[in-house]
Amino acid sequence: MYQQPQFLPYPQPYLGIQAPTLFRVGELVWFQMASGWRLGIVSVTAPTNQKPGVKPEIQILPISHQLFNQSPIQTLEATARPFLAFSVPNVSIPELQNKAYDEVNWEAFLRSLTPEDTHRREVALLDSSKMAAQKVGVSFSVFSRIAENEGGKKIDYHGIFLGAERIELGDVLRVRISPEQNLSAAANNLPDALLALREICTAPIDVPGMAFFKGDIYQPLTGDNAPATDAATTVPEDKLPRPLREEMVFRKKFAPAERWRCVLLKQNAVLREPDLKGRFYATHRLLPLLDGQAKVAAEAQQGIVRDVQQRLNQRIDTFKTAYIGQKRSRADTIGPALPPGSVLQFEPSVREEGA
């Protein structure tokens, strides 16, 4: 006999501190300068209680190598983009091609550049930032341990720096559904499946260096589209995790005819790192960054809300160098790519044991 699923509440923010919905301290992002797009790590985010009419700003630490002696950048949040919004161009300098960031003797390489060759030095700076981004992309580190059981066989954490992004319990992730989830073939091919996150854990004794992600698998639907499994249940708005509640409120307001909703495909599914594409970003926050506020507002008034998630890259598809895996901390992951004396000003909710 079929039983209606129980919709349990999602984990609360650690120490009551809600992570920003868009950019978070420690994340790798793109930011715009007069000369083009650059890569950096968010070190300070805008206050959550921003005054109306004040454009939020963030501070970014440009990545390259500390010997380039770059300075922190204070910029409008609107000039930044999530790392997975763009693809990293190929490295230009032949001596650096097909090498990992840590394989390069940067001190010796930079000594080989003459002071008057400013163009080559600029290209080297850009290449080093691309290589540093690739290194960050293939690494992860966990933070804020919340439980341990079975003598340390399973350790639960509130968050993880997964490649470019900072992910916390209660977040929603874009995922690919593997056959081991025992769902339908149609579900395995879904381009827009989501995971609402209930647990992040490691199993350092049995499978060291791996992270596991437990939560509920959702499929967003519009109009008369049918779910990928017959047993799928439409989830009441108040039972959705916060990011999907906010998404539904936005879409109901501007595109009610779409009848956007989420159906539950599986509860308490356990996914692995390769199954995760990246963070789900609220459409009303991300779409104006990609398309411009004026265009998004004009379309919303016509009842048009575009699917912004499909325009983001999938993390594993961005890998160009060998997988690194677990590191002790975010600073350990980024290494000498940060400017000298840099500090990531994490909230008290981010507690790194290896820092």
What does the model show?
The protein is an alpha+beta fold and 355 residues long. It is 19% helix and 28% strand. It is built from 7 helices and 15 strands. The model has no long low-confidence stretch (mean pLDDT 93).
Write the layout of secondary structure elements.
Blueprint lengths: L27 E6 L2 E9 L12 E6 L10 E4 L3 E3 L23 H6 L6 H20 L1 E11 L4 E9 L2 E4 L3 E4 L9 H4 L5 E10 L3 E15 L11 E2 L7 H13 L6 E12 L3 E4 L3 H9 L1 H9 L23 E2 L3 H5 L21
Any key phrases for this structure?
alpha+beta, 10-stranded mixed sheet, Cryptic loci regulator 2 C-terminal domain-containing protein, Clr2, Tscrpt-silencing_Clr2_C
Which structural class matches the secondary elements? alpha+beta
Number of helices: 7
Give the tally of β-strands. 15
Q: What would you report as the Rg, rounded to the nearest angstrom? A: 21 Å
Flag low-confidence runs: none
The shape is globular
How many strands, what sense, and barrel or not for the largest sheet? 10 strands, mixed
- Taken in chain order, the helices and strands follow as EEEEEHHEEEEHEEEHEEHHEH
Tell me the β content.
Answer: 25-35%
Helical content class: 10-25%
Give average pLDDT, whole number: 93
Cα-to-Cα separation, first versus last residue:
51 Å
Summarize the structure.
Residues 157-281 form the Cryptic loci regulator 2 C-terminal domain. By secondary structure, the chain is an alpha+beta fold. It has helices spanning 106-111, 118-137, 185-188, 242-254, 283-291, 293-301, 330-334, and strands at 28-33, 36-44, 57-62, 73-76, 80-82, 139-149, 154-162, 165-168, 172-175, 194-203, 207-221, 233-234, 261-272, 276-279, 325-326.
